[in-house]
Amino acid sequence: MKLRKILSFGFKVAISASLLYFLFTKVDIVSVKNVLVQASFFYLFLGWLSYMAIMAFCSMRWRIFTVPLGFTQGIYKLLLYSFAGAFFNMFLPTSLGGDVGRAYYLSRKASSKPKKQKGKNRGLSEAIVSVMADRAMGFFALLIIASCVLLIRPDIASALPPLIAPIVLWSLAVLIIAMLVPFFFRKYLKRFGKIIRDAMVYWEKPFILINAIFISIVIQLLDVVVNIFIGFSLDLNIPILYYFILTPLTIVASMFPASVAGLGVREGSYVYLLSAVGVPEATGMAVALGWLFIVITGSIIGAVILVTGTLEVPWEHGRTD
Where are the domains of the chain? Predict the structure, then answer.
């Protein structure tokens, strides 16, 4: 099993490395460097602050999903888990790697100080449900934002392949149907296993989903704002509304499973999507590196939290030591 995991990870490293090598043979590195040295640090700093706000709002949204399952961690504790997850995102396969870390810490802390609800300890399966719901709601909000732009201003995406708009709109339609189904068939869906049964609590209290959707839209709008500030820092001259298409597509690209933390795939998507509206490839790569820089700074905070043991918060669960 270990050999299989090593080979799988090695394959993903090879894919990311190959994509990055291809990009840097296609894009002039000197031109990328020239673009980056002219970047405005002020706008990059505003982008970084927006990313910090995203982390805070993500913790708020996650807590919406953890409380109904019996977890008692506060927003501050979940924020620490989220920063730790951001660190794992940089070193585990795909941008979903951090979700594994978040579920692990949430369940580990719950099991060390068990909280009972209806006779059961909150554990790994419930933690997985909360993380999956959190991730799904973020994806749902991405599709909402992209679909709104495509419906209101279809000309914004005219330079992109014609299949992108139908895929985004149909994906949103499928997700809406999937979210409505449990309202009518919850009793039958509970028969499909413990994880599904645990997830049904969100449909028993619809305000959970409404609040999560609202915060998710705020989070994804902040994701767009981060890209806008990166664009401003590089004096990018594209329509503001195009960022509302660029951001969801690049985030989805970073989830590509056959890669390490989305490396190569994400950068390639930036170069391709920006070149479609006349942005030079070197500038597109610079935008991708700007996003990577901001994310890496967040992951460094996660590394500090892990190394210093800050995940232990003495005032939670009644601890005073």
Answer: 44-112+121-318
Mean of per-residue pLDDT scores for the chain: 84
Tallying the residues shown for the chain, one arrives at: 321
pTM for this predicted structure: 0.85
Q: How far apart are alpha carbons 179 and 173 in whole angstroms?
A: 10
Closest CA to 215 of 51, 65, 60: 60
Write out the E strands in the chain: 116-117, 120-121
Q: Specify the higher pLDDT residue, 234 or 2.
A: 234
Rg for the chain, CA atoms, rounded: 21
Residue-wise DSSP of 260-303: BTTTTHHHHHHHHHHHTTT--HHHHHHHHHHHHHHHHHHHHHHH
Q: Measuring CA to CA, which residue among 262, 296, 295, 268 is closest to residue 281?
A: 268
* Intra-chain end-to-end CA distance of the chain, in Å: 41
Distance of CA 294 to the CA centre of its chain: 14
Which is more confident, 304 or 65?
65
Give percent of the chain with pLDDT exceeding 70. Answer: 86
Q: Which amino acid is at 69?
A: L
Task: Give the per-residue pLDDT at 211.
Answer: 94
Query: How many angstroms separate the CA atoms of 311 and 321, rounded?
Result: 14
| Structure confidence at residue 115 (pLDDT) | 45
Provide the residue type at 187 as one letter. K
Q: Report pLDDT digits (tens) over 30-55.
A: 888 999 999 999 999 999 999 999 99
Q: How far apart are CA 120 and CA 74, in angstroms?
A: 20
Instruction: Match 């449990």 to its residue by tokens.
Output: 182
